[in-house]
Design brief:
The structure is a single chain. The chain has about 600 residues and is of the alpha+beta class. It has three domains: about 230 residues, 2-Layer Sandwich (Heat Shock Protein 90), CATH 3.30.565; about 150 residues, no CATH class; about 150 residues, no CATH class. Helix content is about 25%, strand content about 25%. A hairpin with a 2-residue loop joins strand 11 and strand 12. The chain is elongated, with a radius of gyration of 38 Å. The termini are far apart.
Length: about 600
């Protein structure tokens, strides 16, 4: 085949299919507001009005959305681009091709979200050169149905010159196609606006003096009226964050051990460089927030004692670490909690990572078009900042230390409550126990075995107390192996019957050590151990972190007496320690020797 005979072919676009695909790519119906708000702010609006209502004059009560802004309006070029696909007015760029300013629209896809409807109306007034104004009214009928038939919808418009009307743009969408009107309930709509549109931008948290465009949005307002709302509600620009709280110690004075539920701390890092990409940077806003504070400013959160509505969500559903472009967070499914947090720790965080070099899909629902190597470097940067400048900060360390201290106190409180409850329960059991008496006919030599573990200490104690009643200053009424091995005892010989107020614990140990982790000292009468290698004056700590000093003295017979001394305010709560190896030798003359072998 002669190369000179080659022909040239030009790829064609099936226009109706391309439009339809773009329209259907926007899966959350509220994205129509996200795009409308972005367009309004791109073109200078300081006030936006959003009204959603059902048309009661129609049998189907179709949904009607109206978005009006006081921006510079649609010029003839922007009006044409409004209807076209991929015909966006290019944002300003520097001589190197990098985007300038905070214009959001780039792809020319956003207004196609409006096409899921029965009728689309547009009205606008814009300034023209020479001082006159251009007033245009347009409508497009049945756009989505026309696309479904494989045809391109057409729009009709009328225009005029005017002088006395202010600039504005108003878009009205009739019969908007949705699966559930709940999405346009006022509460849900407000929540969406403040979390997932430019009007809920996090940029005001960055304190960047050099970015004047951020301050330009500061006083902008929206009048929002969703379904179920009689009058519009005024919403101010910017994502909602709580005020920072005091330090943990101050919060403890007000809230005791629930202080962490009210803790709020902010870190922000504007224009952080990305290693390996010197022309790219990140803006990070990072909050730690307790759940009680979250529920104070976020009415959409489910909470104890309130019946949940369909539109409410949990902390885990909403909070964590979000990625953003143009300071607009991507959907919750795109959270990157694993960049900074382990397990459920991320539910404490209310954090955002903005990067203008993220590559988004056409519907802004994913960062899936971002280069993988670049995204890995972004993650490394976020991880490094979190580890070295947030978790390593004095404020975060103080927070973590108090959290651990609170957890320890909580364990102690539960243990002390468990001990009180356990005494009550075992008192009832002890009252119901049957007892038996054994009369020994004649003395006999009993062989006792040296214990190697706690259970054997208890066995030795049981045999000795059976043989020599009254050897110890307490009487056992119940045994337990729930936390170590202990017994419930009554002090003295138990005269007057079993009295609940006289009940105390006796703990069995192989050896007494510096740490005593099975009980608190508060309800402990005695410790029975086989041996003790501690010296007099040694400190012993209980489960609650309370310290007792071991005192080793002598009785009138010169026998060793071991006691854990109580502090002065608890002088009656000294704890006797019976070291069986010595106590049996000194009281009964029992010596434990190696066995003889034959």
């Amino acid at each position: 085949m002669d190369i000179a005979d080659r022909k040239v072919g030009t790829p064609e676009v099936k226009e109706s299919k391309s439009f339809l695909e773009i329209v259907e790519n926007f899966t959350d119906p509220r994205e129509v507001l996200r795009e409308a708000i972005s367009n309004a702010l791109d073109w200078g609006a300081t006030e936006i009005e959003v009204t959603v209502h059902e048309d009661a004059t129609r049998v189907d009560k179709e949904l009607v959305l109206k978005i009006r802004d006081n921006g510079i309006g649609l010029s003839k070029d922007r009006f044409t681009a409004f209807w076209n696909l991929a015909d966006s007015s290019d944002p300003q760029k520097d001589k190197f091709g990098r985007k300038l300013g905070d214009r959001i629209g780039e792809k020319g896809h956003g207004t196609k979200t409006y096409w899921k409807c029965r009728l689309l109306e547009v009205e606008s007034v814009s300034k023209q050169s020479g001082g006159s104004k251009w007033h245009v009214i347009a409508e497009m009928k049945e756009p989505i149905n026309t696309l479904m038939q494989g045809k391109l919808p057409q729009y009709e418009y009328a225009e005029e010159q005017t002088h006395d009307k202010p600039t504005f743009t108003e878009v009205t969408i009739y019969g908007y196609h949705i699966q559930s009107k709940e999405d346009f309930r006022h509460e849900s709509l407000k929540d969406y606006v403040l979390w997932f549109t430019k009007f809920g931008s996090i940029e005001l948290e960055l304190d960047i003096e050099s970015r004047k465009n951020i301050e330009s949005h500061k006083n902008k307002v929206m009048k929002l009226q969703g379904l179920g709302k009689i009058d519009p509600e005024t919403i101010h620009f910017g994502h909602v964050f709580p005020k920072e709280s005091g330090n943990p110690k101050q919060l403890q004075n007000a809230h005791q051990d629930t202080w962490s539920r009210y803790y709020v701390r902010k870190w922000s890092f504007p224009s952080e460089p990305i290693e390996g990409y010197p022309s790219s940077n990140l803006d990070i806003v990072f909050y730690i927030e307790g759940d009680s504070i979250k529920r104070q400013y976020n009415p959409m959160l489910k909470r104890p004692g309130r019946p949940p509505e369909k539109w409410h969500y949990t902390v885990a559903d909403r909070y964590g670490v979000y990625v953003c472009k143009d300071f607009i967070p991507l959907p919750s499914s795109q959270r990157v909690n694993e960049w900074v947090a382990e397990k459920s720790e991320w539910t404490l965080y209310h954090a955002f990572v903005n990067c203008q070099d993220f590559g988004l899909t056409a519907n802004r629902a994913s960062i899936g078009n971002t280069d993988r190597v670049f995204l890995a470097k972004v993650r490394e940067t976020v991880e490094r900042i979190f580890k070295t400048r947030i978790k390593a900060s004095p404020e975060y360390k103080a927070y973590e230390e108090e959290i651990e201290s609170t957890k320890e106190r909580s364990v102690i409180d539960r243990t002390q409550e468990d001990e009180r409850s356990d005494v009550e329960k075992r008192y009832e059991f002890a009252k119901k126990k049957r007892v038996g008496e054994f009369q020994q006919k004649k003395p006999a030599t009993i062989t006792l075995l040296e214990p190697r573990q706690e259970a054997e200490v208890l066995a030795l104690f049981s045999v000795v107390t059976a043989l020599v009643p009254g050897l110890f200053e307490f009487s056992i009424v119940d045994y337990s192996t729930g936390r170590g091995i202990d017994a419930l005892s009554v002090l003295g010989s138990g005269e007057g019957g079993l009295q609940k107020g006289n009940l105390r614990y006796v703990e069995f140990k192989k050896a007494l050590t510096h740490e005593f982790k099975d009980h608190t000292f508060g309800r402990l009468a005695a410790i029975v151990c086989w041996e003790c290698n501690l010296t007099s004056g040694a400190k012993v700590r209980d489960l609650a972190g309370q310290e007792r000093t071991l005192h080793i003295g002598n009785d009138q017979q010169g026998h060793n007496v071991y006691t854990l001394l109580a502090p002065p305010e608890l002088a009656m709560n000294n704890i006797r320690v019976y070291v069986l190896k010595e106590y049996l030798s000194q009281s009964l003359g029992i010596q434990f020797k190696p066995q003889t072998t034959t």
